[in-house]
Write a structure and sequence with these properties.
The protein is mainly α and about 120 residues long. About 80% of the residues lie in helices and about 0% in strands. It comes from Priapulus caudatus.
């Protein structure tokens, strides 16, 4: 149900109807304010979780890039060389993705949370 419009000419008579209507508008404003605060909190929690995920992804990327097979004999087999190179390349891709995620997270506060807090 929508709110009834406030007729400011009714404020002169200060009727119980007008007062109840004002209280309904105040309750709705308070409800909206609480929802915005909840949205801000959830967004901050989400950004914190994204930063934690990014850190874990970077650690995994680093592990992939440092991966080396232990050789039996003097040299690695062709398959071992290919696998190690593939893991290193995959680690670089993950790192590039995390660089973009960091840029997105840096802007998220200024472009989403700050306007909500200002509102």
């Amino acid at each position: 149900m929508g709110l009834l419009p406030l007729e400011f000419s009714d404020c002169l008579s200060d009727s119980p109807y007008f007062r109840e209507n004002i209280h309904a508008h105040e309750r709705e404003l308070e409800n909206t304010s609480q929802q915005i605060k909840s949205m801000i909190k959830e967004c901050k929690d989400l950004l914190a979780a994204a930063r934690t995920l990014s850190k874990a992804q970077r650690n995994f990327s680093s592990t992939l890039m440092r991966f080396k097979f232990e050789c039996i004999g003097n040299t690695q087999t062709d398959d071992e060389v290919v696998i190690a190179a593939s893991l290193k390349e995959f680690g670089k891709l993950i790192s590039a993705i995390e660089d973009e995620r960091d840029r997105m997270l840096e802007r998220a506060y200024d472009q989403f949370i700050l306007p909500l807090e200002t509102f």
